[in-house]
Amino acid sequence: MAERQVVESLLRFGRSQHGGLYTPDRQADRFIRTNWNAWLIGVIFDQGIPAEKAWEAPYLLKQRLGHFNIRRLARTPVSDLRRVVRQAPALHRYVGKLPAWIKVAARKLVKEYDGDAANIWKGCLTAGEVIERPDDFPGIGLKKAHMAARDLHENACDFYRWNQINMAVDVHVRRVWKRAGLVRDTSPAGIMATATRLWPKYPGELDAPTWWIGMTWCRQRCGLRRRTT
């Protein structure tokens, strides 16, 4: 199939999937959608574990702590957060690093954004500005910052220069694009450059459909691989 046809198929599939759940747990999904601080912590959790578990984690963290007050989280000792995250079943595989990321993120929200993650992108006009700010939080980085900006743009906010949002390259994206013959260089830089060439208007729009195909259909060694970032 020609490159153009592959791109058009990905775009059609992605546009048909808009409005899906972050996680099958309805209460956890509602929490993510109604609390921007929970959404940001979900972005931090979304690494090394299935996506639906990452987005469920802020709600479970709230249940275990008895609150989700970001100012109280900023004051909570890392040892207490580590105990809560480690409690069976563990909320994450990174029980050492993740609690520290949560605390630093909470302190950053309080100090720089008046305790509200919605202020991170408040006043941002371009997607590039939005990408820069989450990238500055521990445990997010540039790849997940692109994912976060795409999620915000498609579900909550409207920014100029969509073309600045690119692919959040993970194992699923690499596998699908290589098998589809879209790239030889499967490095993040190689895939992002190819996405910009194939769909310069909005390269990031190719990310979600590629990831869904890789997670649900494109099998490796006859076994389905769940999302890890």
CATH topology of the largest domain: Endonuclease III, domain 1
Radius of gyration computed on alpha carbons? 18 Å
- Secondary-structure class: mainly alpha
Q: What does the main sheet amount to?
A: none
Overall pLDDT, averaged?
Answer: 91
CATH superfamily of the largest domain: Hypothetical protein, domain 2
As for the number of domains, it is: 2
Span between termini: 28 Å
SSE pattern: HHHHHHHHHHHH
Helical fraction equals: 55-70%
CATH C-level class of the largest domain is Mainly Alpha
Stretches where pLDDT is under 50 for at least 5 consecutive residues are 221-229
Task: Explain what you see.
The chain is mainly α. It has 2 domains: 68 residues, no CATH class; 130 residues, Hypothetical protein, domain 2 (Endonuclease III, domain 1), CATH 1.10.340. Helix 6 crosses helix 7. The radius of gyration is 18 Å and the shape is globular. The C terminus is likely disordered.
Task: Describe the secondary structure blueprint for this structure.
Elements: H1 3-16, H2 26-34, H3 36-45, H4 51-65, H5 70-75, H6 78-86, H7 97-113, H8 127-135, H9 141-155, H10 171-179, H11 188-198, H12 207-216
How would you describe this structure in keywords?
single chain; 229 residues; mainly alpha; Endonuclease III, domain 1; 12 helices; disordered C terminus
